Amino acid sequence: MMTLSPPAQEVLRRICAAHAARPFAVEKLERLRPEALCRAELQLAMLELRQAGLVELRQKIWGEQLYQIPPQELAVIQWSCFPHTPKPLPAGTVTVECPADAGLAGQLFRALVFTAQQGLPLTAKGSIHKKQAGRLAALLPVQDKHLRGLFPQAVDCETCPLAVTVIVDLMLVLGLVERQGSAYFLDMVKLESWLGLSELQMTSILFNVILNRYGIDGPAPQHFRYLISSPAFSKGNWYPLGDVLEWMSEVQLTAEQPLEALQSACLAWLGSLAGFGWCELGYTEGGAWCFRWTEHKPLLVTGKMLDSDPDNLSGIFGDSEGQQISGDEGHFIVQPDFEVLVPPGVNYRLRWGLAGCSELLYADELWSFRLSRMKLEEAAEQGQPPESVISWLASHARGGLPAQVELTLRQWARSIGRTAWSEVILLACRSEADAADIAAHPRLQGSLSRVGPLHFIVRHDSTELVRKELSAAGLAPPRIIGGREGEVPPQQTVYFMDNKVPKADVYALPVQEAHIGLLGGGAVLQPLPLPSSDSEELILPGEEAVPQMWLREWREYHITTAQKVMEQALTWGIKVRLSLEGQICDFIPEQLRGNPWRVAGGLLPAGTEEREDAELAAGDWKEMKLLIPQKRRNSSSA
After folding, report:
1. Among 217, 232, 435, 623, which is disulfide-ready with 429 (CB 3.0 to 4.6 Å)?
2. Per-residue pLDDT tens over the stretch 113-147
3. What residues does the Helicase XPB/Ssl2 N-terminal domain cover (predicted)?
4. Which residues have a Cβ under 8 Å from the Cβ of 105 and sit 6 or more positions away?
5. What is the pLDDT of residues 399-454, one digit of tens each?
6. Contact status, residue 188 vs residue 505, Cβ threshold 8 Å
């Protein structure tokens, strides 16, 4: 920011105030031109901002071009152009209207467990089954009342609660689930890398996705969302909402939106943050709204943090492997009553392992699971033998397993797996003669077993061999087996113990595209490439046809020539330096007027930015000279 020229800084400040990180049509830029700048200087300032990565030029499919401050740059720009030091409320009584619920990372974890255990089937129209959506909603602390204000547009809450829609939207955007046919399924590769993050990493990634995806539209609400996320709003302190809005109005960050409407949008945002466990909303003894961040305030990711890899948000916190919690904090506690307590420091891969062999009761500051025979059986069905589960629990439990718990688990284990269902493929023949030929086939003796006059059991891994041999003998069976094609795909293992998981790649947020997710997702407009180094030449088109003395010499011209010089300045959108009543002034021509010839524009004493509107006739000034914008003067082509 400090390396920008003063004109570029002022233009950026005006763009930030008027539009935040919302795109706006190129044609609207002229409204933001500082009075002391000509059009050419404005274009050079925009070129400078684009080269610095602080403003991007985007284009819609049909050709309309838009300027936009990149969302990841808005925080730094806002805090630099509009520094603010809020004053917390003095110690006093605050009534909490909307307390903080459990953290969103834990709520998302619960939804992932639900998806693994009970599934998320879809209707023919692609929506989540109403019954299943209701079950998931009952498990989530965040409720529709926390979120309804964020989505003034129509959202179908009758078939699917809004809280479920938001959670599933987040899972899709994060790449943790994907649609396959008529249901959502976990993406195990992405899930493994996600669970390798710390809770701080998860929380901040979630916050930055939500910050740019949800919330009432418009620059003023967006300014508020970024403003209160700054380090100036410290954890645990109550801040008056009214003071924040008044300050925003004073520095013109409200985009002329009425404060009453803006307050409504801000309350909706704060209510959603409370539902996600990050903020609390209350009011003072005098009835004024106030808010405070909890100890779990997320870290706002800014452009500087993303320079190395914009898609890898987890990289800003360092290697999660290097953040492994040591000592007892990395262990859960198994109680004699089979309850498993999980302190905040336990990593999420261990929690996922627990979810595979015990029931998740609640997930707040201190998580709680419960061991049971049923869950031990379910773990065995997922490919985790009871003996392995017991050993894993003992190795990660602080102080090991209580004797009575271990004894009971081993008793349960002895009765698990003694019998099992087995799915086989049955080959049926139409005649005993064909069956006899198959039974006598020398190359099929180890691949099938006769279980009746007309029937054989075929091993799963031998179906292709049996089909090949029977085809050669003129006895080919159809490729359809029991109404389904080919072999049965193996059941996906969705739970894993930490020592069975290969080292996953560091989590990277998927590329955000318009079709991803259930909410938000407007068209993603790609920025146009930066102009070449010769682009400054385009600001003064046809320069070679203009007399060079107009650019280089300070002199008096005949009235007709003086008019042509001024008209050329208007065409190029540059300033003219002239001698007016014995004073040297700079003039920005903006409009020509008819008979008699006159030019209207802005008059500035040379070297100042104090503009006053003026209308001049060609004989009002004496010496004159076209002023090339500063950057062109210093360029190699000047």
Report:
1. 435
2. 999 988 899 998 888 999 999 999 999 999 999 99
3. 332-448
4. 199, 202, 203, 206, 348
5. 999 999 999 999 999 988 777 777 788 999 999 999 999 999 999 988 999 999 99
6. no
Q: Are 262 and 221 in contact (CB under 8 A)?
A: yes
Q: Which amino acid, 109?
A: F
Alpha-carbon distance of 518 to 555, in angstroms, equals 67
Separation CA 296–CA 294 (nearest Å): 5
The pTM of the full predicted model, rounded to 2 decimals, is 0.83
Question: What distances in angstroms separate CA 160 from CA 135, 153, 273, 384, one per listed residue?
Answer: 10, 16, 21, 34
Q: Is 595 helix (H, G, I), strand (E, B) or coil?
A: coil
196 contacts 349 by C-beta, under 8 angstroms: yes
Angstrom distance (rounded) from CA 55 to CA 333:
52
**Which pair of tokens denotes residue 559?**
């009235």
Rounded-to-integer distance, Cα 135 and Cα 118, Å:
10
**CA-to-CA dists, residue 518 to 106, 108, 217, 243, angstroms:** 21, 16, 17, 36
Yes or no: domain 6-69 corresponds to CATH 1.10.10.10? yes
The H or E element spanning position 457 is strand 455-458
Structure token pair of residue 614 = 């003026």
d(CA 586, CA 99): 59
What residue segments make up the domains of the chain, in order of their start? 6-69, 94-293, 323-414, 425-485, 536-633
Report the greatest alpha carbon distance in the chain. Answer: 122
**3-state secondary structure string across 104-160:** HHHHHHHHHHHHHHHCEEECCCCCECHHHHHHHHHHCCCCHHHHHHHCCCCCCCCCC
Q: Contact, 65 vs 57, CB < 8 A? A: yes
Q: Which of 446, 354, 451, 364 is nearest to 393 (CA)?
A: 354
Burial-class residue 368 by CB neighbours within 10 Å (0-12, 13-18, 19+): middle
Question: 98 is written with which tokens?
Answer: 């909307």
DSSP, collapsed to helix, strand or coil, labels residue 276 as coil
Q: Which helix (H) or strand (E) holds 171?
A: helix 162-173
**Domain 536-633, CATH class in plain words:** alpha beta
